[in-house]
Amino acid sequence: MAAPSDDSNISKTFENKFLQKDSYAEELRELMDSLPKEKGWITPDMYNYKGFWLGSIHLQGALRCQKHFQAQDYDIMLCSLQKTGTTWLKSLLFALITRKQYFPAAISQQQIHPLLTKNPHELIPGIEFYYAIENSPDFPMNNGRRILSTHLPGALLPKSVWESKCKLIYLCRNQKDTVVSFWHFMNKRRSSELGGAEAMPFPEAFDRYCRGEFQFGPFWDHMLGYWKESLENPSKVLFLKYEEIKEEPDVHLKRIAAFLDCPFSEEEKECGVVDGILRLCSFESLSNLEVNKTGKTIFRQTGNHAFFRKGKVGDWRNHMSDEMANKLDQIVDEKFKGTGQPERRVKEQATRG
Ligand code: A3P
């Protein structure tokens, strides 16, 4: 099957299928019955599989990926937890890899760039979602590379990802902004996908997040798995932080290009290609496109607008008490002690508003 572009049928069947347990394959049902479970944020349950919390959709997708996905040396895999800036990095990667085909600096001359009419999640497929539907999805090639993404932890990725020369880029974000962003996103999904279900109060979401009980969590094991790989094998895994990209986007875009063996030439730099990509993929630019204001995600009823909220560093201050912030800081300190601290603290001057 080709990566689907018309979302209407998929989103309906996808959601319905995975919200009804009796429609799961028997093998999956047996496994789910044997695993520790907790109430899901969207789905009725989520399951602890090898130390990570997965909804039934992601569990099915993870198992099928492990069995059938074959990584190629030319693949690029963007790995992240939800709400860490995945949509932004997807857009940057797509624009970077296809820059010869779609020259970003020419956007002002009305050239039609795919990012102007498609949401980044449509251009860069999340593998576990596609494998949740079938055994052999056909992922698109872009300029000789497959650009893919996953929220799965490194320990649950198919073996071929680690055995091949495929490149991994991991994106993380400070936990306080991530949990706030996640809470907003999940409440939007609860409202649109669960027939207007009540919003989860922030204190409840915060406590669950701190216990690691959210899809693909806990965050510490997710981050540390990729962090250690990036230290041991820096040509295989590039570890990025949302706040650092925000601070110096051009530095990091050039770093990503070099890591992916497609560095910018001097001519490209002089012609404004780096700036063109950054402008095209900025929060202001993407969030104001019609496709991202009124379009829908491929797999869900929730609109694309849910992926663009504020795009700021430090918004946690508008939601979190000092006590909560201290608690999360302590968890981060304890979990990352002695590891070189993959999480970057938000600077104290981050302002309210
Ligand atoms: P906020 O909710 O804090 O605004 P993900 O893409 O992993 O789901 O993460 C979503 C978060 O990234 C949201 O954070 C969203 O606003 C922010 N975001 C989306 N596009 C962005 C962009 N182009 N630049 C910076 N941040 C962006």
Could you tell me the number of beta strands? 7
Residues in helices, as a percent range: 40-55%
Structurally, how many domains make up the residues? 1
The string of secondary-structure elements, in order, is HHEEEHEHHHHEHEHHHEHHHHHHH
CATH class: Alpha Beta
**What's the architecture, going by CATH?**
3-Layer(aba) Sandwich
Count of separate DSSP helical elements: 18
Mind describing the biggest β-sheet? 4 strands, parallel
In short, what is this structure?
The chain is an alpha/beta fold and 353 residues long.
Topology at a glance:
Layout: H1 7-19, H2 26-34, E1 37-39, E2 45-49, E3 52-55, H3 56-68, E4 75-80, H4 86-97, H5 114-117, H6 120-123, H7 127-133, E5 146-150, H8 159-163, E6 167-172, H9 175-193, H10 202-210, H11 219-232, E7 237-241, H12 242-247, H13 249-259, H14 266-270, H15 273-280, H16 283-287, H17 290-294, H18 322-336
Parallel strand pairs: 4-5, 4-6, 6-7
Antiparallel strand pairs: 1-2, 2-3
Helix pairs in contact: 3-7
The structure holds adenosine-3'-5'-diphosphate.
Outline the structure in words:
By secondary structure, the chain is α/β, with parallel strands linked by helices. It has one domain: Rossmann fold (3-Layer(aba) Sandwich). Helices cover 46% and strands 10% of the residues. The strands form two sheets. The chain has a four-stranded parallel sheet with strand order 5-4-6-7, sandwiched between helices. Strands 1-2-3 form a three-stranded antiparallel sheet. Strand 1 (37-39) and strand 2 form a beta hairpin. The radius of gyration is 20 Å and the shape is globular. The termini are far apart. The model is unreliable at 1-11 and 347-353 (pLDDT under 50). Bound molecules: adenosine-3'-5'-diphosphate.
